[in-house]
Amino acid sequence: MKSADIVLYIVLGLIALLAITTVAKAVRIVPQATAVIVERLGRYSRTLEPGLHFLIPFIDRPRAVVDLREQVVSFPPQPVITSDNLVVNIDTVIYFQPTDPKSAVYEIYNYIQGIEQLTVTTLRNVIGSLDLEQTLTSRDQINGQLRGVLDEATGRWGIRVNRVELKAIDPPASVQDSMEKQMRAERDRRATILNAEGVKQSQILTAEGDKQSSILRAEGQAQAAILKAQGESRAILQVFDAIHRGNADPKLLAYQYLQVLPQIANSSSSKLWIVPAELTQALRGITTALGGDIADPSNGGGVGPAGGSGPVGGGEPLLGTPFDDTQLEDPVAALQRARADAADATADAEGASRRASGRETPLGGVLPTEGQSSEGYFREQESPREDSPRPSEGPTEGQPPSA
Hints:
Layout: H1 3-26, E1 27-30, E2 34-40, E3 43-48, E4 51-54, E5 60-67, E6 71-81, E7 87-98, H2 101-106, H3 111-127, H4 132-137, H5 139-154, E8 159-170, H6 173-246, H7 250-265, H8 279-290, H9 331-356, H10 374-382
Antiparallel strand pairs: 1-4, 2-3, 2-5, 6-7, 7-8
């Protein structure tokens, strides 16, 4: 290959490279939400909007590319002194958006740095008029004041401040400790008050419960006593009516009395046994049932055989002269007959008790109904029988007792 051909190829390559470079500089594609500042021969020419644009090569030159989207900038903590001479560190966040790309490029060298410094000075002016308590509780007021001052100052820069936020407010460590102690004391006070209120309510409810319980218990005891008294009263009426209707004889009473006497003396705590005054009457009934007689204990007499001249130890006979001629049967036969009579009396008493548990009496009568007094009942029951002959209650004078 000749040297002339080589030189020709080199020249053609340079021309092609120049043409490609010229075309690249002449065609400019601007993305969406972006603006391009174009200078012609060092002076502002125009602002390119999003789309395809053609420039004059080597005459028009792009100066800056401005992002038109909203931007967020977080500034480092800044020490600020409050009105009560406390130093607090405040973190701020700025939300801004360029509205005029030309002003943002030619009115200020670095609008982000300008916004940061303006935020710090404005924040110190605002916080300096507030104390610590107001600073901690007036975030919205501080944000509004900062936004108003920054929006007014950055308007000529082609920047619109949309929002200002205080990210953190950090008081000194000593102040934080004091605040924690204060909050802890306040919580303890509230807890104590609530606990006292709870104890008060609990005691009130307990007292009310005890009061109602005492009232109900007293009412229950009163009703129980009334029912018990009514039951005892009706039981006494039924037993009395059963005894009255059964026409109990001295044999039954003597047998019942002898059954009760061992129970009186059987108590382990009994040191003294008092003999009741009715014992002589019971003994007299037993002696009569067995066919003997009894002397008056006040005269120093005792029990003697029938047909004797009188009681042992002297004195007048208790039963009088009609029984002096009475002849007693053999003692063994009398004892057997007395035992048989006692067994019959026991059977009669048990039958009377069973009949007394119902309303029908042994003689066909009816027990008094509820609300009817026993006095009126017995008056009604005895009145029809006034003309009927009464049963013989004992031997008449001059008539010897039956064998």
